[in-house]
Amino acid sequence: MEKSEAKSFEHPDEVREFPHGRLELVRIGGVVVGRNTLEPGWRWSESVQPIAKTDSCEAAHFGYQLSGTLKVRMDDGTELECHAGDVCLINPGHDAWVVGDEPVELVDFQGMSTYAESE
Length: 119
Hints:
Blueprint: E1 14-18, E2 21-28, E3 31-38, H1 44-47, H2 49-52, E4 61-67, E5 69-74, E6 79-83, E7 87-90, E8 94-99, E9 104-108
Antiparallel strand pairs: 1-2, 2-3, 3-9, 4-7, 4-9, 5-6, 5-8
């Protein structure tokens, strides 16, 4: 059984930076949780795709959005918007970008362990 513990994003285990964005990772209870801060101008296909080297984001995301608006376009063309206060589930195979002038901050409980990870 895992021991009880608490960790803070103020002291993350790892930080990954990329154009217009920053990911802070906390490893706890055998899980990796990420806090993603995405500035206006961030778009996955421009900011992370050169790192991931895939046609679209292949990570699944399950998270809670704290601020801003994030537009997501799935590979099949369907779109959704995630707003502050939303819990979003995004399957692999998508592009995403910040809408408007407010940064997007979200906490992702899935798909962050290799996100924006350089080789």
